[in-house]
Amino acid sequence: MAGVEDTAVRAKQIPEAAVARLAVYLRVLSGMAEQGATTVSSEELSGSAGVNSAKLRKDLSYLGSYGTRGVGYEVQVLVSQIERILGLTRQHRVAVIGIGNLGHALANYGGFPGRGFPVEALFDTDPDLVGIPVGGIPVSHLEDIPRICSEREISVGIIATPPTAAQSVCDRLVAGGVQCILNFAPVVLQVPAHVEVRKVDLAVELQILSFHVARRADRAGEAPENRGTPGLPDAGLPIDNGGTGDGRNSAGTDGGLGMVVR
Amino acid sequence: MAGVEDTAVRAKQIPEAAVARLAVYLRVLSGMAEQGATTVSSEELSGSAGVNSAKLRKDLSYLGSYGTRGVGYEVQVLVSQIERILGLTRQHRVAVIGIGNLGHALANYGGFPGRGFPVEALFDTDPDLVGIPVGGIPVSHLEDIPRICSEREISVGIIATPPTAAQSVCDRLVAGGVQCILNFAPVVLQVPAHVEVRKVDLAVELQILSFHVARRADRAGEAPENRGTPGLPDAGLPIDNGGTGDGRNSAGTDGGLGMVVR
DNA sequence: GAGTGTGAAACGCTTCACAGCA
DNA sequence: TGCTGTGAAGCGTTTCACACTC
């Protein structure tokens, strides 16, 4: 597989972490361009993007050398180069599966970020929804996922169903030729190697935050800087973990964020 | 800051990456417990969580030694230990700011994942919304964020507003004593050091996926396995961890999902 | 002088492989 | 025998510091 001959040799294998940041730089740069800026320094751009300048320069260096020493970078040039690397010069048709609260929000975008991610198909199981247009696109049934995705050349699937439905939806997306999946359901999806999955998990995010609060509380012994408001350590009630049972969730209808609660 | 700080006295300093996975293990374990499982091996648990067993064992070792050689781990014990480490034994009151599509979805949870994250306040600027209850809680005006958060002892703020409002909302949350912020708006927030921020950015996620598709297309020169009709190697095995309640989420549109578009 | 581009050091996370205990 | 717990090796990412260019 070596092949590397593609584009001029430059496939240097950009670190995954850098790819995520490039997307952020792109947004900041677009904002700057809109306000008329034509050049930026690494210091300036990194400040707005929330990283340090060394990291920013390293990241940009993966694109090639597009800066001018003593001056900075040309905003337009960076925008184009980042779009090129991220593959944003072509369209990626999107399908949203699970038209609950979250799915609705996604479908209503109409067309995603600037350019590049038009929503072209919606799916749900609910008979009351099938056939009805949401954000201009009629909702289809889950069973038609393979056919429709194939016909419309969908390349990205966004799963916003309850967790129990997620794997089967995923399988159908794969059968329909979808290569990328953004999964909002709290389940670890099983996919063939050629499919890329990214997961967004609200519960996990909240729990990570919780961890940090807890850590902070521990070492709060003598934190000098406090913010005026009291705060109260709030001892916290134990939530009786004993029971554990929590069971919840079942599949709802609303295909929504994954938690079911009700 | 280079300083050594009080070198870890008690805290073994669990790697950030491990913390995120612990939350996943917790969900899987809760599901197993619900189905009556009392013990698991690292092989089993890691399989369901989508990681390899060595990593799982290493992660669990940060909690202490709770396994039994030759046997495995007791599900209940792991659940309790992970909850302890993640600080889930106490409540973290949540406020949602920006009641658009996404905000609504979040507010309607009613109470978050299983236990621990009750939504106690909602905010928006829209006069038509202020005063109206959503998911049982009346919407308040952004101006009251500091007072209300302080009164209700909110510790987590979820920002689901349009990007332009995000920083000012953030400042008010900080003024109200909020320590953790989950940001759905596509902006890099500026916060004091004692506040923890996590960001969920739909646009970035899609662009990362786009990058991978592009890379893949490049080296598709002679990929033997193509997707013809992918038949799927059958991925499906039962994961069924589904059950546990937790949740998920994300994105919002109007409120912010983040992409700006032009 | 100002600011980029980058090798090399430092750091943190992951993987390996095996000792140790039930 | 079976599986956990963990030191140590391996790797990817971040940071440093400075040569180089405008």
From TrEMBL, chains A, B:
<dbReference type="InterPro" id="IPR058236">
    <property type="entry name" value="Rex_actinobacterial-type"/>
</dbReference>
<keyword id="KW-0678">Repressor</keyword>
<dbReference type="GO" id="GO:0003677">
    <property type="term" value="F:DNA binding"/>
</dbReference>
<feature type="domain" description="CoA-binding">
    <location>
        <begin position="87"/>
        <end position="188"/>
    </location>
</feature>
<dbReference type="GO" id="GO:0003700">
    <property type="term" value="F:DNA-binding transcription factor activity"/>
</dbReference>
<dbReference type="InterPro" id="IPR009718">
    <property type="entry name" value="Rex_DNA-bd_C_dom"/>
</dbReference>
<dbReference type="Pfam" id="PF02629">
    <property type="entry name" value="CoA_binding"/>
</dbReference>
<protein>
    <recommendedName>
        <fullName>Redox-sensing transcriptional repressor Rex</fullName>
    </recommendedName>
</protein>
<keyword id="KW-0963">Cytoplasm</keyword>
<dbReference type="InterPro" id="IPR036388">
    <property type="entry name" value="WH-like_DNA-bd_sf"/>
</dbReference>
<comment type="subunit">
    <text>Homodimer.</text>
</comment>
<dbReference type="InterPro" id="IPR036291">
    <property type="entry name" value="NAD(P)-bd_dom_sf"/>
</dbReference>
<keyword id="KW-0805">Transcription regulation</keyword>
<feature type="binding site">
    <location>
        <begin position="98"/>
        <end position="103"/>
    </location>
    <ligand>
        <name>NAD(+)</name>
    </ligand>
</feature>
<dbReference type="GO" id="GO:0051775">
    <property type="term" value="P:response to redox state"/>
</dbReference>
<feature type="region of interest" description="Disordered">
    <location>
        <begin position="219"/>
        <end position="262"/>
    </location>
</feature>
<dbReference type="GO" id="GO:0045892">
    <property type="term" value="P:negative regulation of DNA-templated transcription"/>
</dbReference>
<dbReference type="InterPro" id="IPR036390">
    <property type="entry name" value="WH_DNA-bd_sf"/>
</dbReference>
<dbReference type="Pfam" id="PF06971">
    <property type="entry name" value="Put_DNA-bind_N"/>
</dbReference>
<comment type="similarity">
    <text>Belongs to the transcriptional regulatory Rex family.</text>
</comment>
<feature type="compositionally biased region" description="Gly residues">
    <location>
        <begin position="253"/>
        <end position="262"/>
    </location>
</feature>
<keyword id="KW-0238">DNA-binding</keyword>
<dbReference type="GO" id="GO:0005737">
    <property type="term" value="C:cytoplasm"/>
</dbReference>
<keyword id="KW-0520">NAD</keyword>
<dbReference type="InterPro" id="IPR022876">
    <property type="entry name" value="Tscrpt_rep_Rex"/>
</dbReference>
<comment type="function">
    <text>Modulates transcription in response to changes in cellular NADH/NAD(+) redox state.</text>
</comment>
<dbReference type="InterPro" id="IPR003781">
    <property type="entry name" value="CoA-bd"/>
</dbReference>
<keyword id="KW-0804">Transcription</keyword>
<feature type="DNA-binding region" description="H-T-H motif">
    <location>
        <begin position="24"/>
        <end position="63"/>
    </location>
</feature>
